[in-house]
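Readers of this paper often ask what the protein records in our data store actually look like. The remainder of this section carries one protein's record, kept here as part of the documentation.

:::
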Amino acid sequence: MSTTVTLEGKVAIGDNAGSAKSSSPSSSQKNAQYGLKFVGAALSNMVASGVSNPLDIIKVRQQLRTQTPGARANAFWSVGLEMARKEGVRSLMGGFTASMLREVVYSGLRLGSYEYFKDKLYIMSKGALSREGLGLKVTAASIAATIGSALANPADLVKVRMQAYYPQGRPYRNTPHAFAAIWREGASSGSTIRGGLSALYRGVDATTVRGIILSSSQICSYDQVKQVLKRRGIMEEGLGLHLTASLFAGLFCSITSNPVDVVKVRLMTDKERKLNGVVDCIRKIMVNEGPLAFFKGFGMCWGRLGTHTIVSFIAFERIRMLFGIDPM
């Protein structure tokens, strides 16, 4: 009879020694789990985005308006009622297909690869970065968000364009037509490929910055709140903990990301190129509308991001459970 001491310090006797060695997941099993986390993150955020799409489009409309901040005409109920009356109730689901495509790339990567980068950075630091520390979490979330935001920018741009208001009528029939029209819009001012790609990547700098700020504040605060509540014995793993942590995360990321979101939306809908990049956009908003303009649409931003955060994290935790993966 053989005796084996495992990494956890437990002793396995006889035939059980082999099973003890295999208790820790192999490299292929870990990679499979990372893949399932990507799928789970994409699916959960698609569900959340579908639920919050009407709030998202109202938020975009508010951010594009230039009235005095707080003016009644820019209140979310005024914008929503005006859309339903003039464009029909279906207008509240504008950009839905592009939004789903964006979530697969953007959220699949920013949330789905968060733990991958967290694990890799921890190993690379050789313990210098604590698993419980915010430094590791923020760095991992920032890397994941940078990749996801940059790759998803074309879908994000199409979504915003399809959600904007056009007095002369909608210029885009559907999502494929919007992609093609924006490509042609860029190609007309430069070489076919370079000009088309530059048009689809309009506002990518603001999109990436927003993605980093949002993901760092949203994912890290969710992770941190869960960790603190569990460590102090206030709550146990389950729906109540997931709801509580996501409520905090939704509010925090709404506050931090709204100003960048306003700049991003303005740049993405600037078809006539009146804005010369992020700095010029910020300057013109400050001069023409004042600093409170950066928080235009905050009510809808919080309503949308808060709803999206709650639904996405609860769904993500449920999907992980179905896939046999430990809670986040």
